[in-house]
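Support reply, case 0932

Customer input (verbatim):
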Amino acid sequence: MIRVLIVEDDPMAQKLLENFIENSGRYKVIGSIASAGFAETYCLKHSVDLILMDVCTALGVSGLEISAKIKKIKSDIKIIIITSQPECDFINRAKAGGVDSFWYKSSDEKEILELMDRTMEGESIYPDSTPSLQIGYAWNTEFTPRQLEVLRELTSGDTNGEIGERLGISANTVRDYIQQMLEMTGLQNRTSLAVAADKSGLVNKNY
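Our regenerated output:
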């Protein structure tokens, strides 16, 4: 039996994954924890073959950051990132951290079990794109990478100067990017733009 650790802070999602795995006949849940902060220690104390790792976990701990740490000390453990967040940078960060596969959450039992099988066989499975969503009148695919960087920083509530300093651009350039996005979305001001971006999950600065 393949030993699976689930890292998921949503009790309903955690239970659903447990049921899928236990009914498979080839996987066994050896642990379910809510925070990725405990996953690294768990892997050092127990034999784990596969981790299903959420991104936004309890106690504000990033599943992406912990996955990268686990891969450095236990490279043989397969890791699948599971998330409902469409943040465009999550896929890139997962690849950079050595994560084996990436899955957007659904209730399709066959889909997740097939992904687990293929990952355990050595394949690396990633979606071709993030889920489609709108902010105002604009689709997520219409934003440039630089606009998304500015938008991600904008959700922190900082000034254009502070954002520009972190991104290595001028405050005026930040202002121009924000104006572009306001025109694209039809939103009225930077606050409404930041709130809409945060609520939609298009950008997520916290994880």
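We compared this against your earlier run and they match. Two observations from our side: The first helix runs from residue 11 to 22. The chain is about 45% helix and 15% strand. Please reopen the case if you see a mismatch on your end.
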